[in-house]
Specification:
By secondary structure, the chain is mainly α. The protein has helices at about 5-20, 25-35, 40-55, 60-70. The protein has one domain: Tetratricopeptide repeat domain (Serine Threonine Protein Phosphatase 5, Tetratricopeptide repeat, Alpha Horseshoe), CATH 1.25.40.10.
Length: about 70
């Protein structure tokens, strides 16, 4: 993803979290972006927050698999 789009997506996700910290999709986006940037610890933290607010469903299973495969 190009740098400008990454910054834009990250900004939108952070605004969503600030508006409502229990917004699971925003945490998912932040996790994906952090992983894309090679920030594994941040990605894990965001994925765990996602699972806190959305512990079941297709996305939750996918995120659990991602967490299992992160170093």
């Amino acid at each position: 993803m190009e740098e400008g789009k990454l910054k834009y997506a990250k900004g939108l996700a952070w605004r969503a979290v600030k508006a409502d910290p229990a917004t699971p999709r925003a945490h998912l986006v932040l996790g994906l972006l952090a992983q894309e940037e090679g920030k594994t610890d941040q990605a894990k933290a965001s994925y765990k927050r996602f699972l806190k607010y959305e512990p079941t469903g297709d996305r939750a299973e996918e995120v659990k698999r991602i967490l299992e495969n992160l170093p």
